[in-house]
Specification:
Elements (H helix, E strand, L loop, with lengths): L2 E4 L3 H10 L2 E9 L2 E8 L1 E3 L2 E6 L14 E9 L3 E4 L2 E17 L3 H15 L9 E17 L1
Length: 146
């Protein structure tokens, strides 16, 4: 039997956002075309920050100021329910908002420092394109099934 539960505890949501490493950024390219790209990210002060090299082609077509979605999926190791089935649990968090370029030097330094700590990235100076998803809404669900 499958079930879906909405996660309403912001502490759980923030913990998952802080402790995961990869998300999918979804944005519109044209009226009827969207792009979805996997990106590393930093969750800080209720916003998602994405650090990329200036020439990174994955976000070349993004329109700053436009609405975007960011999703992480967390899967737990399946548990044996019986000899014939496994129980699984997945969490999905989707954030909607608009994407903006970060241009405040103090914020850039704080974001780079947090990113370097999270990913142990030595060449942090290469990551010159720092974007922020200005969060408008969080949606989080847990999926259980077998």
């Amino acid at each position: 039997m499958n079930s879906v539960l909405q996660i309403r505890d912001i502490g759980i949501i923030e913990n998952d956002l802080k402790n995961n490493y990869l998300g999918v950024l979804t944005y519109s390219v044209e009226e009827d075309k969207i792009n979805q790209v996997p990106v590393t990210y930093l969750y800080l002060d209720k916003n998602i920050y994405i650090l990329l090299k200036e020439d990174d082609e994955r976000i070349g077509a993004i329109k700053y100021g436009a609405p975007v979605f960011f999703t992480i999926i967390k899967n737990e190791t399946p548990k044996v329910a019986s000899k014939l089935s496994l129980l699984y649990k997945s969490s999905v968090i989707t954030i909607s908002g608009s994407i903006k370029i970060v241009d405040d030097q103090k914020a850039i330094d704080e974001i780079r420092n947090g990113y370097q700590i999270k990913y142990n990235y030595d060449n942090i100076i290469e990551l010159t394109k720092i974007s922020m998803i200005d969060t408008q809404e969080f949606k989080a669900f847990e999926y259980f099934g077998g």
